[in-house]
Amino acid sequence: MRYSQGRQHPPQAPASFSQFIKSSYNPPSPVRNKDTTVANFTVRQGCRYRATLSLGMLESLASNAMIASKLEAAGFSEVTVEGQGSVRNATALWPNGDTSAAMPKQVTSVEQIDAV
Questions:
Q1: How far apart are CA 17 and CA 25, in angstroms?
Q2: Taking the CB of residue 20, how many other CB atoms lie within 10 A of it?
Q3: pLDDT, tens digit (0-9, with 9 covering 90-100), for 40-90
Q4: pTM of the model
Q5: Enclosing H/E stretch for 78
Q6: 17 vs 14, 20, 66, 72, 106, CA distance in Å?
Q7: Burial class (CB in 10 A: 0-12, 13-18, 19+), 40
Q8: Domain ranges (residues) in the chain
């Protein structure tokens, strides 16, 4: 990629793990966009969710505590993460207002397990 000064810069690095975590915890809607394979996701205030993550090679090096802290930074509370390597299971409470977003491919399943 060339900029106006004529200097060439390397391509940007892929999204960080924290960006992945922040974008990955919004429960899925059963409706998928016709043009993509990304599901829309809605979390409801006061509901608890269970998600299964299938992580890539570098993402799988993260500790469960690191994943939990990223979920907390994204707005979840009462977060627990179990598992190791590329498959992790997380449960968390969404205490904020209802929110929708796209679900990344690393989230292989999400279910609402109760409402507070």
A1: 13
A2: 20
A3: 889 999 999 999 989 999 999 999 999 898 888 888 899 999 999 999 999
A4: 0.64
A5: strand 77-84
A6: 9, 5, 10, 14, 11
A7: middle
A8: 17-28+38-115
